[in-house]
Structures are given as structure tokens and as C-alpha cells.
Amino acid sequence: MTELESNIIKHYTESDCTNEFLKEKFNISQYELYKILKGNNIKHKIRKTPRDIELQVLDLYTNQNLNTTEISKKIHISKAVAILILKRNGIKMFGTKKRPDIEIKVVELYKQNTISSTAEKLSILPETVAQILKRNNIDIRKKRNIEKEKEIIEYYSNNIVSLKEVGIKFDLSLQTISNILQRNNMKIRKNVQIRLRLSDDDYKNYLDKLPDFEKYKRKITSLSKKKQVSFLQNYHLKGKAGIDGAYQIDHKYSILEGFKNNIPIEIISHVENLEMIPWRDNLSKQEQCSITLEELINKIKKHENKTS
What we know:
It is a single chain. By secondary structure, the chain is mostly helical. 59% of the residues lie in helices and 3% in strands. It has a two-stranded antiparallel sheet. It is elongated and about 105 Å long.
């Protein structure tokens, strides 16, 4: 008899340990355990599950919302024993036990994690995570390349580059790069920072040193670009300065006058304050206004009433 066999037999005959415990402790299969016991004429004993184990199973299933597979792994009993205990104690079982609190956590964690890492963080099986995601109509992503994501994050952190440049380097779409950065809580840099090739600290200093008017102008320009202006007259002629026949977006009540009079940026960037004019007129107009503030306010009110 080997030392391993001797230890297994000693545990089996002198304690109430389960087969699952022995398999786990000695790293053997059910068949190997069976051969050792039979080869040494050890009769199989029908063991009544200790009451403390039964209470553990009941608590894990009813109070901690673990399923029978998870219970079997946690306390080293077979899934069949866990099911017998639940049935013997009159616990109603479900094919897949729904757990609202766990399901919410799974859905939230999966936004920034893989199925495996989500399962590990919640101490549940990956199969359970997949079932919950399917039940909540969450599209299961293709397996993410964590190492590649780390490489992308490191590259973006250490270089002043645009999303497009990162996409070209790693042969990925702009949206994929954006998703990876956002998923890892990375702040996406502004276009002006990329254009000036300023580090994050230098860009912050750059913004701090900008005159107040420049900050005001930048905010209005940014908001104006987001407006739906394709309906403006001559919009189809939009082009760069210097091109014959090109038109540009102009602010009827000028940005400079808005700054001087402390007008909210939402008013100056409103679509009712935008128009298309020839690029030469736009350059020569400078701070002049083609509309009064009162006229602009009235136009905005009429616009809001139409769209409300």
C-alpha cells in the first residue's frame, strides 16, 4: 500500500469526510478513489450528510443566492448531494436561479470586464455570467485581447496622438479605439491639443493662460459646430476662405459683442444667430453685427415655441 493510499483510507474510515473532499484534497478522480477503496477491500459507506453541511447548503442557496454548481465547488460536495439536501428540506428549485442583485452587478461589471473577470469578481461561474447576459439581452462581445488593450492604453498615454492615428497603428476602427479608452477610464484629448502636440499638463497650462475672450470664443465655436445647420441658405456652398464662391458660417450678433456684453454662449451659438455668408464678407465683418440683441432674443423665442 502506498503512502497516498494509506492517507486516503485513513481519512475515509476515521472521519465523515465526503468523496468530493477526498478528491479535492488528494487531487484524484472519482474512478481513482473507487479503485483505491475497492483494491484495499474498503466497503463503500452510505454517509448521511452532516447537519452543519446541510445548513451551509441551505444558507448558500436561499440567502447567498448560489446555485448548486457553485455550492458544490465552494464546500466540496457533489452537485447531486446539494440537490438532494435542497429537496429533502423542501426547497423549491429552478432551472436557473434568478438573482436580481447579482444580475445587476453582472450587467454593470461586464461593461468594462470580460465574462471571466466578471465571474471572478463576483465568485460565480462564467457560464452563469453568460446566462445572465443573455437573459438581459446583453450582446456578448468577442473575447477581448487584454494585452493589446494594455498596449493601446500605454501608447495613447505616452504619445500625443489622435484616435485616428492610434487606429491606423493598431489596425482598428476609430470607434473601437474610443470604446477601449473609455472602458479604461481614459480621458480622450481635444483636437486642439493634438494639433498643438501638447502634453496633458502643458495643455492644461495652455488653457489656463488663454485670455477670457479666447475661452469664450472657443466654447461658442465648439457649440456652433454641433448645431444642425444644413438647412441654412447657401449651406451647400460651404468652403474654406480663399476659394471662389465659398460661403462660411457667421454669427449675426458677433462673438466679440457677445463677450463684451456678457451674453450666454447658448444664445450666441443658437441656430437663429447663424447664417452663411461669402468668406470675404465674413473676414471683413469682424465684430460688426447684422442683428440687434433684442431681435436675436425674439427670433430664439419664436424658434423655441415652434419646436416645443
